[in-house]
Amino acid sequence: MWIALLGCTAPADTGQDSSSNADSAAHSEEPDETGETSDTDTGDTAPIEPVCPDGLIPVGDSLSDPDYCIFQYEAHIVDGVPTSVEGVIPTTAISFYEALEMCADSGMWLATSDQWEDAADGVVGEGGSTYPYGDQMDDAACVTPTVDGEVVYESLQPTGSLETCVSPFGVYDSSGNAFEWADPQLVVDIAAFLALFPELSEDEDGYLVGTEELVEATDLQVAGVQPFMTLREDGRIEVALEPDSWEWADHPATGYLFDRASTEALPLTVGPLDETFTLGVLTVREDQDGTPRTDKRGGAYYAGSAYGTASGAGFLAHVPEFDGTISFRCASEPL
């Protein structure tokens, strides 16, 4: 398995009892005139105490004693503070670093990948539904493209717009609308990656030199770069650039080379070989050693396949500075 907020509007009623820890002794069942019993206040009822901060809902096997609390809706930033409210456009163009910082400054944390997934699939730990609403993708359930990839919505929609796009815990829009950052709690470890591929080296110009075995065992994920790698006669790893994407990608483009058999990744820069921006070579971004890895979840209104919008699908390839159409959810300890 891939692997909150003070002062927000109270969450909508999700049908889950988050107040079952109220003092039941303060109520008694008495027969009414028809002989039926009713729950009657005896006059000494204690106030029902919330289990989560405003805007957050409980996640756990017991909703009255949850494992953690999480934003019910995608984050909407007001005066620099992330909020969780219904009926607003989620805030995007937020980097992973900014999401981490804003949650922390509000006394919370960016939901981890495991926490995000559990809140979306309805089960803590292994198991849960494939999508927040069930095991079969429903084109109409969330703000997503169809299963065939046809784009239905032209822009982000207000949070909670579709009553069907809700998880068993009451989390809205974890499939579609905006992509969302989650924290996989991984860091870049260049030495660990190189230990897996001792044949990997750099030539006198700093370009990455490898073998066919390396190319076959790894995947390249860099914005604006096709994922296919080839070896030149001199051993340099060569890639094809996407000129249309290069205009919006960071230049020089940055990303990772992933080992398919582990979670290790090598941070890379792709540089063009010529002015046509059609071919590129790879260099290692040594300055990224020890930086956090990112996880992008849930698909978006304009992107996502049947797999990509599933609760368990994560995308680990963005550098933490990337700030595309991505929102986030904060999490917190219960009250």
Which terms summarize this structure?
335 residues, alpha+beta, paralog of FGE (formylglycine-generating enzyme), six-stranded antiparallel sheet, four-stranded antiparallel sheet, 5 helices, 11% helix, elongated
Q: How does this model look, in words?
A:
This protein has two domains: 51-186 and 292-335, paralog of FGE (formylglycine-generating enzyme) (Alpha-Beta Complex), CATH 3.90.1580; 190-288, no CATH class. 11% of the residues lie in helices and 25% in strands. It has five helices and 20 strands. The strands form six sheets. Strands 11-14-15-16-13-12 form a six-stranded antiparallel beta sheet. The protein starts with 26 loop residues before the first strand and ends with a strand. The relative contact order is 0.19.
Summarize the structure.
With 335 residues, this protein is α+β, with helices and mostly antiparallel strands. It has 5 helices and 20 strands. The protein has 2 domains: 51-186 and 292-335, paralog of FGE (formylglycine-generating enzyme), CATH 3.90.1580; 190-288, no CATH class.
